[in-house]
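All the exercises in this workshop are built on plain-text protein records. A record pairs a protein's sequence with a compact description of its fold. Read left to right, the backbone structure tokens trace the chain's path through space. Once this layout is familiar, the rest of the handout is easier to follow. Here is such a record, shown just as it appears in the course material:
>
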Amino acid sequence: MRLLILSDSHHYLRFMEQYVEKYRPDCVIHLGDYYPDGQELRSLCPGIPFYQVPGNCDEYSCDPFLPRVMSPVIGGVRFFLTHGHQHHVKSTPYSLLEDARRNKAQVVLYGHTHIQDLHREEDGLLVMNPGAAGIAGEAGLLEIENGIVTVSRLLRGRDLEETQ
């Protein structure tokens, strides 16, 4: 199962659409800023499971009752999805990682900083910030087989130029 991870599109969908076209994901995750971008992308990808949380720039453009955090199980893997602003990730990831662990997540995905990050904590928790999908053209890609993340990588605009 291939998952495309996106965040911080800021009304700029071109790279997101190109990533969907190139990688043909089985699931798309949009981590906010701007929530309507995710909704528009979802309409272009009928039949693909789509998970989405709003970000700090979405406070007035979407339903205030939308969940700011989600903990879905996708492909047998428990995720913790959030934009990150409520966890103050620009200062420290501590609150984010503690909440992810409390939710028994195996993978935590967040945005907000516009800085790509991919690492594994000492306890095995996989942490990914796909960066800014908007003008920077950044994204993340995960592949899951039999309930295990087998591929995790960060994508940049130049990856769209390379053949798959």
Summary: The chain has a mean pLDDT of 92. The chain is about 20% helix and 30% strand.
